[in-house]
Each structure stands twice: as structure tokens, then as C-alpha cells.
Amino acid sequence: MKAVLGFWKKLSLLNKLLIGMVLGVILGIAFGESILVIRPLGTIFLNLLKMVALPLVVCSLISGISSVNDMGVFGRCGLKIIVYYFITTMVAAAVGLLLATILKPGEGFVLDGNYEAAVAEVPGVLDTIVNMVPSNIFSSLANGSYDHAVVFSILVGVGIILMPKEKGKRIHDFFDMIAEMLGYVLKIIFGYAPIGVGALIACCVGEYGSMFFSFAVKFLATNYLAVFVMIAIYFVALSVFSKRNPWKTLKGALPSMMTAFGTQSSAATLPVNMQCAEALGADKSVYGFTLPLGCQINKDGTAILLGASFLFAAQAVGVSVGIGTMIKVILLALLLTTGSTAVAGGAVIVVTILIETFGLPVETVAVVSGALALIDGILTTGNTLGDLVGTLIVSDSERKREGKQVKGEAQ
User: Fold this and answer.
1) CA 360 → CA 38, 168, 316, distances in Å?
2) 244 within some domain
3) How far is CA 392 from the centre of its chain?
């Protein structure tokens, strides 16, 4: 028994989720609809996620933004890389939405309930942007309005930066400690996650049968294809703005990409990504800032996951999605990924927030959680490669501005 517990403790969260998913599938096939008696085990997991999601994203956002203690950091290089990160994140969310529209992972996966009214309330583009700004943040927090909470948190973070240094640091440290504490709470919840996900997957398979397997194939294909599309976009941007040879750059980036796919962690890949940036000729003064920043705020893979997850949920309940709604999803994907927690499995939190924001069935989060174990490696690869390419573009632009030779430039 000790050996089994020791082995279990050594497993990563995603491997534990994968085991929970596999066991859930087996139980669902074996017992059919009778397995629905264990649904409360899954409901507890979903309630725990919803409980911690709102305070965690607020504190993480405020802490992350206010950690930049000098507005001078947002200088020329900072502005360039932040614009790049924001654009690629929104493009990634749009690619996820587009491919989910084409492949329809939620088509045929029928969930009970009428959710048309919740999404139908989403207004046009201009009204969507206006309505994301809260008029009463206390009311918004009480009602669980995640988009309002995100906008408020960003403004608070910037406000802390503008405060006198000592006062701002004390407030930053407070939110940083609360965010860290909530991270430990989240680790406790994720200790239960394999049971919760396993129970929900078992109920899903028992109730919906072959529909689940059809979803899994299409959802995996959607996410993998979206990352490949983003990789192509990265190298087109690199060719246009830096005149680099894409193939040589890809070869130089392979160590980072392989590490990201294997570890499924942007933070763990950061040292390797910095080595690749050095080998590819980026200036240390640039990549020493842009890569750690990208590790925190640039999560194109998560943006893809959000777009695909939203459309899966909408398709599963038969909700038609208009352009205005998709634009709101893209904007929310940008805000949520910028402030999302670095705790392992944190993508589950932002998916929960997005699904909750639109009033769609939160049960879909469990299905996505199971699939996450199979796609997190490729999503992390997209994250880290996007960071590296953006760094090369910014570094090369600075070299050209100073009249220096750009290493790796296509001749």
C-alpha cells in the first residue's frame, strides 16, 4: 500500500487526471446509467472550483500587474512585446473558435437544459466592450461577474504601480500573499481532482455513451490543429518582421519545444527557452525581460483551449453563437490568460470562469479537464514558442535600430 501511495504522490497532476479519466471511462462503460449515483462526487469538485475561481483570478491579476513597480519598464521593448503578446493571444483565441466552428466538437454531444437565453443576452460589439466595465464592483463580485472582476483587477494593478513606491509595494505584497495562499487552497482542491473528474467522466460516458468518444477525437483535433496554425503564424511573422530563415529558427527552437511538450510547464521550460534565445542571437537585455514576462502573460495555448471549450459547450446545448459573442470570448480570453495562475492545472480555472460567464453548463468543464491531460503538452509548446518568436522579433528590431547585424537573418 505504501508503494502505491508513493507512486501516486510522484505523479504529476495531469497524469493523475489522465488516470482518473481512464478509470471514469471504464466505469461508465461497465455500469452505464447506473453509475450516475456517484455524480455528487463530481459536483463537489465543480463547486470547489467555482468557490476559489473568482478570488484567485482577482488576486493573481492584481499581484501580477503590480509586480512591475516602475512604469518606465513599459518602454520601447516592453511596449513592443506586450503588443505582440496581446495580438497573438487574441489571434489564438480566434483560431480556436474558428476550428471549433469547422470541426464542431460539441455537435452530437447533447446536454439537457435550455441555455439559449443566457448567451442570447450578449449584445453587439460596442455594447459588449461598454458592458465589461463595472459600475458597482461589489455587486459584480457578489453576482460572480468574472469579466467585471477582471477589468477592475487590471485597473487596480495599474493604480498600485502609479502609487508611491513604498505604499504600492505593501499593497502588492498583500495581494501577492493572498494569491499565494489561494494557490495552496487550489492545490488541496486538485488533490481531489482525479476523483471529481473521474466521477464526472464516468457519469458522462454512462449517460451519453458514444457521444463522449466522438467529442474527445474532435476536441483533440481542434486543439492540435489550432496550435499548428499558430506555429505557422509565428514563423510568418518572424519572416516578415525579422527576415529570419524559419527552418533555421525552428531547428534552434526544438530543445525548448521538446521540453515544453514533455514537462507541460511554461515555467519549467523557461531556462531552456532562454538558452535557445541566446543561441539564436537574441540580446540578453531583451530576452531576460521578454521571456519571463511571456511566461506569465502570454498563454496562446490556453487562449486556444478557451475558444474551443466555449464553442464545445455552446454546441452541446444547441446555442447559436454570433460575432458579438465571439468577440467577447476573444477579449475575455486575453484578459483571463494574462492574469491566470501559474499553478499546475490552472487552465481548468479559466475555462470554468469563461463557461460560467456565459451561463453555459459547468459540467462541460469536467469533460475538458479529462481531455486536458492529452493536449496540455502541445498547448504549452505553443505558449513557449510564441514567447521565443516574439523575443526574436523585438531583439532583431532593436539591433536594426542600432545598426547591428541580425544573427540568423535570411540572406
Assistant:
1) 22, 38, 10
2) yes
3) 23
